[in-house]
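User: Predict the structure for this protein chain, please.
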Amino acid sequence: MRTSQLPAEQFPALTALHGIAHGFTLRVPGIEMTNDKAEVLARLDSVHREIRSAHGVGSAPFITAQQVHGRRIGVVDSPITEDKCFEECDGLITNQRGVCLGIYVADCCAVYLVDPTHSAIGLVHSGKKGTELNVVGSAIESMMNQFGSRASDLVVQLSPCIRPPHYELNFAGTIVQQCRDLGVTKLYDCGVCTACDLDRYYSYRAEKGRTGRMLAFLAAT
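Assistant: Here is the predicted structure, written as structure tokens:
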């Protein structure tokens, strides 16, 4: 598969920001899926690396989270040269340039946070449980405390995720309200349901667990 054909999409609100690299990978043809998340990620890894490289962040330290449906946030506030996975975390924030944050989803929402004023970014995994725990709010408050961010300066983008009628809860709507309650005004939701288009997206619920993962990635370059 040529790099120019690798499946990923971008969001206009983030593309418009100077010095921000981002993407949301799509379904990768020809890769056998399984119920085992670790195996799925291993099979997708080389393609995801190529996609990150195509967006100029392939050689950047890659920071991920264990993603346990909680509200803990991993913080990178000093230079880092190696890949790192934060245990028992569902959100990542950093004020370091040249660091690529990554979150994997397959119905849950990846929430991108960018503070252009303080050159800080965040990426959050928020599904049903995480939304109930307000993990996005936790990440925004961590950016405020760690980097001096203000909610009114943040640009927030919601990725495709599962939505009614394919899911009984509209947790994307709850995430939007949680952000507004904190004072976020630059808020964007793509409005796309992952379960509605299985040619383009993976869906854990629609595919009964035997599915892949989309990678949301974000970096300040």
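The chain has a mean pLDDT of 95.
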